[in-house]
């Protein structure tokens, strides 16, 4: 009896289950992360920094937001080390637990009026745990999905966890907006904002139930079978060379910076400087994220069929151009023009975001891929996204206008565009994804 069709069906089902589990897990973790960003823009200055001026309070709230990004590289390195040593699956389960418990605890922290200094101190601690957990999520989920991918669909499968970013944003904003709409403004700002954070514990239970059914990555299983588990994965990952690692980092900076300006900073800027309705801005960001979410499979399909390099470069150029127009469009005060500005972001950002995880992961062989990918992803997150709301708020506070923010974004986009062009010229086009390892363990691209 021929069992091959049944085996192929079982393998296909396992691959799809893994991709779905990574998407659901990353959605839940990004829900927690973005929920904090929305609350930092709209609530935390009043709850945890009431003695500061509105601008200073917002800066302080965004500073606690940035603390999570500082913790992300540390979490990425720790989770990356164990992910390369003991496997992807278990580390991803731990990261999901850390994020969920930290977010739930934020909903329980008393405000400044109740416990004084300890309120923002506990908020920072919870945020550090959030960032630490998310630091292990981004790279691990991308690897788990990509390393289960069938031939010719590497970018598509690596893109499923990337979809968790806009999905988490949409879920966070919908929950935040719905609870805000159902409650009187005073009650929501006093205690209702805690409900979305407390819901994290329910979402984590769902995510764990799904992730516990996922099998270990075939690539890592092969590493174990061949007894080639790296003793110090990060050290070996650095063999890629400073030039290649630096260019890869530069290539992904803009996407993170632009995304956090349009997802987080605009909520504060639009309500305080331009008098847009808070609910309207959240709806615009959510709508853009929906477009972002649904377009990722299209772009990863294009990358699998025609190659991702040219697509990434043109996408980087498109982001640069749209950043020139984005804030001036918001400044018109027109809700129609503002909605179009956000829609443009939702269309353009996923061009590069959809494949950047795969581009980074394919820099490293399987034995050190988690550590190397985590390093680049999390450094890019802190240098790009983590600082973007703070820098943007400070620039607006200094000048009273958005021109400085536009210049800042254009500079970040120029750095990424230049980095991508230089990276793709340096690394041979024919290099086989993630497997072109030079003798004695040195990585592809390390030798000129």
Automatic annotation (TrEMBL):
Subcellular location: Cell membrane
InterPro entries, sorted: MFS (IPR011701), MFS_dom (IPR020846), MFS_trans_sf (IPR036259)
MF terms (GO), sorted A to Z: symporter activity
Any one annotated GO CC term: plasma membrane
Pfam families per UniProt: MFS_1
Membrane topology, from the record: Multi-pass membrane protein
Major subcellular location class: membrane
Domain Major facilitator superfamily (MFS) profile intervals: 18-431
Record keywords: Cell membrane, Membrane, Symport, Transmembrane, Transmembrane helix, Transport
Matching PROSITE patterns: MFS
UniProt keyword annotation of Cell membrane present: yes
Bilayer-crossing regions: 21-44, 56-79, 91-109, 115-135, 156-179, 191-210, 245-268, 280-299, 311-330, 336-355, 375-397, 403-424
Keyword set includes Cell membrane: yes
Function noted in UniProt: May be a proton symporter involved in the uptake of osmolytes such as proline and glycine betaine.
Family as reported in the entry's similarity comment: Belongs to the major facilitator superfamily. Metabolite:H+ Symporter (MHS) family (TC 2.A.1.6) family.
The protein, known as: Putative proline/betaine transporter
Organism of this sequence: Tomitella fengzijianii
